[in-house]
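For the sake of transparency, this paper describes our internal protein records without simplification. The record that follows is passed on verbatim for readers who wish to inspect the format:
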Amino acid sequence: MKKIEAIIRKSKFDEVKTALAEAGIDFFSYWDVRGIGKTRQGRAYRGVVYDTSIIERTKLSIIVREKNVEKTVLAIMLAARTGEIGDGKIFVVDILESYRIRTGEFGDDALYIKGEEE
């Protein structure tokens, strides 16, 4: 199992959510976050200069089976990309174990309802 954490532009959230659903990923958690990036670039909009390091972001947290990692990452990358500075980052980390509190199932079985998985 892997945990995929993605920090994306808040404005791209709906597109990423749709892309994940099309990829068969229908459960994830998300938060509105703020952060400071390394790259600084001023953008002018209606005469006001904005710093791109303070663009509002959304952080997604998704736990998937190994077989779903690549399609999940690709869905996020394609839907979140604008080609501009500040598109975000994706991190993939190992998950040692998972447990479903209600049933006591663990491992991959705790992630999906039997009969509804692909």
